[in-house]
Write a structure and sequence with these properties.
This protein is of the alpha/beta class. It has 14 helices and 18 strands. It is 35% helix and 27% strand. The longest helix has 18 residues. It is globular.
Amino acid sequence: MRLTIIGAGMQGTAAGYDMARFAGADEIRMLDVDSERAEAAADRINRLVEGDLARPGTIDARDPVGVRDALAGSKATLSAAPYHLNLGLAEAAVDVGSSFGDLGGNTEIVRAELELHDLAAAAGVTVLPDLGLAPGLGNSLAVYAMDRVDSPRSVRIRCGGLPQDPRPPLGYKLVFSVEGLTNEYFGKAVVLRDGRREEIDTFSELETVDFPKPIGRLEAFTTSGGTSTCPWSLAGRIADFDYKTLRYPGHFERMKTLRDMGFLDLEPVEVEGMEVVPRSVFHTLARRALDFPGDRDLVVLRVVCEGDGGSCEIDIIDHHDEETDFSAMERMTAFPASIGVIAMAHGRLAPGAVPLELALDSTHVVDELPRRGIEVRVRRS
């Protein structure tokens, strides 16, 4: 059995490692536009698992013919490429009979992928977007909690990737692309309120959330994309559903100041006779100011479901793994994605294109996480 990963960066490499350990594959193809990055990813995976399952290759994800050729013969494919490429990659995978998953990141693109349902079902393959952390694991835990509460009414997902030791200027370390970060901070967040879908402003509804020390009190605020398809797929089953991003205290106010001053705008401004996009300037500066190479990260994820018959609270706190050198964000994004792809590859999901929260058994996801050293704490009352 061959599995393919498109995008041999941080998340793709971690997913390849997990598949090499748990998928039972004969070959895992690590494809990237950068041949050196693909080779480095394959070498790292093979070294960690002491085998030779991972094979590097090059791909231009914008070339439909080349993508189809590359995916032919793969039982399942994971896209760890930029989200705007996912629809074309999903179409190519369906065309050649490969099940397909991705890390999500844009709800409109995910909903377009779900329109492939009839084609995927006819081809006997599964399309499963949103296999990352949030959206992704958060959605699965939401359903897991709902299934353990009588007459569930509300779900709150709170999630953040953070440095273990916060430093100025923002108390934040880049744990994924800066473009993805600012994308989440803009636009609208889709939620369920009193059973109705609503769009609310991002960077609003600030609250505080307490975690065990040494993490302590964090702040949470609305960001886009975290609920993904849940306000559609879970409507009628639950009245309230929302998602907020967690950060250390002070981050919200500092970023909001930059945003309100226009430093994150996309509209070009003239600077000394040149057209400059403020957000591009911010991205360039942030990559330098928020890099902190060598600093360790952590991921906090809390899902709370309340209902007429009590409540269920799920906490995961994961840290950088010193043995493999995978960051917490890599582990918490790529390992759930790998669980989903492995499930597709082994025929555990029906053919078609279905939202993650409806397609993938949440109990299976929760049971698989401890095998990867990720502790899931569930409290019911």
